[in-house]
């Protein structure tokens, strides 16, 4: 398959550029019988929407999604679901300053050499805007997973720039502009971001996403392991440079006697595995962490070259996120939902007949 | 597609269990005209082979690969290449101790619940042995990439357990049993591993793999980004719990002014991107790091349950690697080769006509 | 992959129902640099549009296509091309007569049992209307094939109901309402269709589609043979019940000495192969024929059952094509273009390096 | 995916050449828990084996299949099943006569131009021998379909050369060397074949394959229609030039009032649809017919060219089938089993939750 689709049985095929007529996707493989309205999708879209606080881009995008197909009388029919989001600001505003230059850290240089042409307006295809259709598609998967299996997916920030955010409670996440699971850190984060914004620079972010209620058995041993597909999905989010499952990089210095999660009839004794063993879900919480690089568009001058290969200095003005990671939480949630949904369908295709007497043990202790 | 294949145009379909008659794979999509012999594949297979030092498992496996098809008079024909490795030790030795128990950190519990049946002999399908066919397949990709494009792929260890291995030189990697790029650390590593082995415990490992000479333009913007597919491939290697591209998790605390790699006619000023921007290769070195968890099979007793759900204690004896990460270097190289090869074919399918006047700049400084 | 996509590298993912808000598709994998406007797509869409003569349905559908993405300043960028066609008539007119009944020959019964829900309005997903986005997608492939390689694709009717249409000239095809390659048969066809229409019955049709200028070498030996993928594409057109390549079913009674196309430096001596040998194009014309079943919606009463399983009589009124095959010519052309385009991209991915000294011989005699 | 795989969830990846070391395939996606031994596969392999009568090639091939993986203690584990068939006759016998020539009707010319290299020994990859692994893979699907759902698949000849074979009874098929469902025609067929063989010429064949007990609901509306995938699978069998579903080409001259199969509580009134409506199974018998071209290897001299492009005469000696179609029956059965199995898995992935009150009606009358 060409490169713009995600999934095998729950397939999202994405299209659009940030300043073209519209962006959207086709969601193919959604089981029939799921009640679905545009409001179900809009909720998550609004969570990732810009302009919700002074700490994110002040661009105004309604990101109103329209369901074009696959839903009849408020219920999914099993036919592909077409989703459309019109781009509002298509003014061919002056992009002359980047039309012929390659911005450091952006895809300008790579697109140009790959395609010989690029829609430079607002980043075109490489714009973070392309995550909006995925958030909408993910909302469909989320609703199915929650309503049919009680699977919940949620995300939060673990770090913004140099400010670590110790986990306190999921309840705080939606009560502050940083998706921070710890309101005690909000004041520090606001100060940090205000300083950063004034400096004209940007910073990276650490993000965590979790799925609870996932049954044991989802995933293939190799190569479509559940964790491998999660890594693929997360790394396919703009600006993500690292992905961890469970203990992640901390496992390097761990001993086997520490890392291997013990099992008792009462449940797992720990969750260093992040809910996945041998590529297959264990029934524990799925735990994923990722690193998001600093926004590449900053006001500070950077060295680069132009299309002719001449050296130039680039200063990027405009309404950019000082930390793109902040709005990435609903995106990561959506991607995790899409991967789990896809594996769930593959699993019931292959293993619908399987029955074992062995009782499943509880998720048990979660050390994340 | 079902879960045992990797790639879109250079496709490896893997089969086998550690104690079945044989393991192997079908490599489909290799271009015609590549000189290929079994010796080309054996070199890398021997690098991952057990029993090469006291620091790895003492199991004896010849891992002799046979080319079954796709090569005629020493040259690839464009037809699928069947690769076969016979399992030598199929003695139905006494696995009674694990037949009815679920070893912590292993896939026993997940396989059982997913399939309702598992080949428990030596880990069956979840055995690290299944990486052998991938190493053979990767050797085909490596030879093509090197002979046609001068792309080189190499890997080394960055950390073993608590011992950090500062990079010194690639020349050292093949002169010590740890794939360590720094012979000055070998004595410390030997002492560490000897102590670990005696303790009956195991440790994790950090691994780095690099590709040089990759042209600008490989990869799709979304979702088959080059970095996303690399993350998928690496995370599909047994025991990998984390993957980083370029700066990886370090990018969280970086400023945009630091992370974004500047460009000049003389080349890139740094390589925090790890050679990939917007999912597409930049022409810099591709830099990947991963975390490998400690071996789950240890002599120390662990709490677990049996098939009936009763609590038990598990002690795993046998000839296990105290650090599975050590032998993972050729595996990671193979996986990276497979991903790059696949993207190269996809790229020339879509962009064979593209020509730009803009000169490509040199890889420049590599800060890895 | 889920079932609504066609192709591997030139992938069309289709969505929509006949009476939903819109229909359309995502065309992923189109090479960059192709000049493309909506007018390029509209030409073929207008050829399949209803209401062009009294011999087809009198429904009025503008079928105006909008390009949503993948084209910048009139040229394809390599990004997926989103295509949108708004449904004009969404009036929830009275479909009460079919809502609870299964029309013979229609997909009502199968959809209902498969999905447990169906959008019964105008056939919903099973409507011939879903071929419109494919015609638009095919027009992109057609333009690429023609402008880059001089490949031409054209179709015509071979038979309508009991009226055989001997091939005379391609020039006639666009000068009569039957896509007939023989104006001498038009009067007979008009009389036949008028009688048929008055009778309230419908008839089937035979259709031929041809590609000229296809280079030798497109296709995979097995299982993605060029002819196998053509058969798949043609059989996926609504109402198609049979597909032939070259001599087709006539080859059963042929002798090997007759069927096997001889080769001379001047060209092939015949084309019983239909331009494909061993799944790979020969450089001859690709010759495909197909059978299209009679329209299932007829005014004559038929026996059927309702949702409760009770016997009923069904009479279908409305503006239906008395012979759906008539408008299928541009659809079959589009499908053939899509398959050839896809194989062309796969071929240059795998065989871009291949060079042989052997001269290609001319297509030679075409006995079709 | 590259071209040597068939299926989406029940995936067969095929490898091998007629005179290489071995042929085989990987069957990925077989559900766990199916009792399976090599004997289960050998039965169908023996039915397609050469040398079973004077009317087929006298080549001796044991075609002994070995199961390499995916089966443990006689039961499938859900892991990929590796199948291996060693080629016995690898003697590099003198193929000098075809090494530099292109045999009319063969893939010699197309392979050479596509790949720039070809394994000319016995047809290499294009040999009918490559169907053996598919027969073995199909036997797995057959056993699953029969044991789990009572689906039966069977095939027979409808015509050999100019001799039509009116259907009499399935019981006769396995009692004569022609897979003829009518022993009354055997004497005529033997005479016809003896004369043909003496003449040094070959003939085509017509073949029918049927599936009974297929539940309603298998298939996707577009583009992975059940009939489209069947057409793809059948056309991917060597030498097949045409495929029909149900009425096939006869539907062209049918009226809608004749073709559309009426439904009553007692069952369908006819089966012109061949058991598929809108790409989805109806619960009737799946009826498929195909045309197989005459063997291209004949003793009679044919005009052709050599690698240098010079005109030559070709006479093909050796032990060739005078009618390759005769041995194709088990192959077509296998392909149909593979397609149905694949769609069954896809169906239960997407529609496992669907429940309707409407009773399914019996298959009813079969007019085939």
TrEMBL record, chains A, B, C, D:
Coiled coil: none
Pathway where this protein functions: Metabolic intermediate biosynthesis; chorismate biosynthesis; chorismate from D-erythrose 4-phosphate and phosphoenolpyruvate: step 7/7
Cofactor mode of binding and number, as noted: Reduced FMN (FMNH(2)).
Known EC number: 4.2.3.5
InterPro entries per UniProt: Chorismate_synth (IPR000453), Chorismate_synth_AroC_sf (IPR035904), Chorismate_synthase_CS (IPR020541)
Catalytic activity: 5-O-(1-carboxyvinyl)-3-phosphoshikimate = chorismate + phosphate
Positions with a binding annotation for FMN: 125-127, 238-239, 278, 293-297, 319
MF term (GO), any: chorismate synthase activity
Keyword Amino-acid biosynthesis: yes
Keywords: Amino-acid biosynthesis, Aromatic amino acid biosynthesis, FAD, Flavoprotein, FMN, Lyase, NADP
Complex formation: Homotetramer.
Family: Belongs to the chorismate synthase family.
Job description of the protein: This reaction introduces a second double bond into the aromatic ring system.
Name of the molecule in the record: Chorismate synthase
